[in-house]
């Protein structure tokens, strides 16, 4: 049943044809009925099947029939369903949160009502009851903070379902953009031994703790052998060895000698197992006073990735333009509205390209995403404008249509230092990374459009960014947009072997974990560049939602990892 009801992309739902099979009637999506503006005349009189959850329900006509506002998540709009008492017990249908699968005929409602079409159900096929006394999502509006405590049910709300559709459209648009521009999609590893950012705020992946717990339990249930048992086993090996030597001195038969050797080997194996178990020590394995990671699952330290960039560069240097789109992790003890422990990144890598190419693709990509939402998700965006940010759609139109302003980091600092009408909380001076308030001032006040800042001081950027000829700055760039500030960070990568070695060692990082990364510069090195877009930041920018925890399905942050 799940396969038959698998949902197509949201953008296709509104144009999906209403079909039926002689063998099985397919569930129609509400978006295909009410999600395309005026309801076409050809739909009236159609017999269909719909399934969804009751937003509101009420009995009318002294219990003769009920109105159900049904939503299936395919769009923001509900479909009004009318069920007569003769069809099904109405009291089982009207509670908010109840799921129903019904069949009936689409009809025009009476003149003067807001509905454009309604379904007159003559069959109720399935009902999933919801106890109104304990269902935590009432008809009244709930705060986003409250919904974070019921993350498993919050997609039932208008806000979270709208964000889910916007997120889906942005993901689809991402793959569409890169496919149309000749990029290949590469799956980079989630478990890594490299620290891309060099910040050290990484989640460690290890089995040492679970292995230690298992060993402690095993040693408790099956104590290791005693020293006397080890001595007895050694004596047995010695005796069996003497027996073999005695057999050979007597020139015994081959069969007799082989039997003695077999007995000796079994005694040696038994001794080795006893000694191995005797040497087992409870707790985390140590070597030279440090944790012995050679005993860990991967034989070395491993972490959850903070970026797929380094790995995807291997494919950029082999198959051309590529991108990765996946989860990344940061063990940063931050409770701000802008940080998550698990978040998604889009990271393209462009071969035979420099910083100018990087800025070009970054601008085109952001414009494409904004245009896509305006073309494919306007109902949900209008909901965001009405309920959260009146400027959300105008912001998308601005970014989609206006050319991005490009200025150097030095120019940006000079402009910010000359500001007299605002006092910044964070100091502005050359060599300091721009804070969010600086980034937003540039894009919202000074230029009133997206801004690309490039050529940052090398001290505040990652080791892999190409050192400029001035030896002070690197070929890095950030895309700044209204509402969120930095949306994209990127750079031309350092393709020169000796320069990269110097940058790694200057950053205080060991060379060994990056030997493979350095070899890309030894064997057919090529100029290349790339950038990273924080997917949740893009959704914040698009929707106007204030807290990043509300734009990801299952937020992870210090103290919380529900589900």
Q: Quick check: average pLDDT? A: 92
Structural class: alpha+beta
Strand content: 15-25%
> What is the makeup of the main sheet?
8 strands, mixed
> In which order are the strands of the major sheet placed?
7-12-13-18-17-16-15-14
Q: What helical percentage do the residues reach?
A: 25-40%
Give the termini distance in whole angstroms.
25 Å
Cα gyration radius (Å): 33 Å
The number of helical elements comes to: 16
Q: Name the poorly predicted regions.
A: 1-8, 19-23
Shape: flat
How many beta strands in the DSSP annotation? Answer: 18
3D architecture notes:
The protein is an alpha+beta fold and 563 residues long. 35% of the residues lie in helices and 20% in strands. The chain has helices spanning 10-13, 31-34, 144-147, 158-180, 208-221, 227-249, 254-278, 309-319, 355-376, 378-387, 392-401, 409-417, 436-446, 497-506, 515-522, 535-543; strands at residues 27-28, 47-60, 65-71, 79-84, 99-107, 118-128, 184-185, 191-192, 286-287, 290-291, 303-304, 322-329, 342-351, 405-408, 451-457, 473-481, 485-492, 528-534. It has an 8-stranded mixed sheet with strand order 7-12-13-18-17-16-15-14, sandwiched between helices. Strands 2-3-4-6-5 form a 5-stranded mixed β-barrel. Strand 16 (473-481) and strand 17 form a beta hairpin. Helix 4 (158-180) packs across helix 10 and helix 4 packs across helix 16.
Brief rundown of the structure:
This is Asparaginyl-tRNA synthetase protein. 35% of the residues lie in helices and 20% in strands.
Attribute tags:
five-stranded mixed β-barrel, 563 residues, flat, 35% helix, disordered N terminus, 16 helices, alpha+beta, eight-stranded mixed sheet
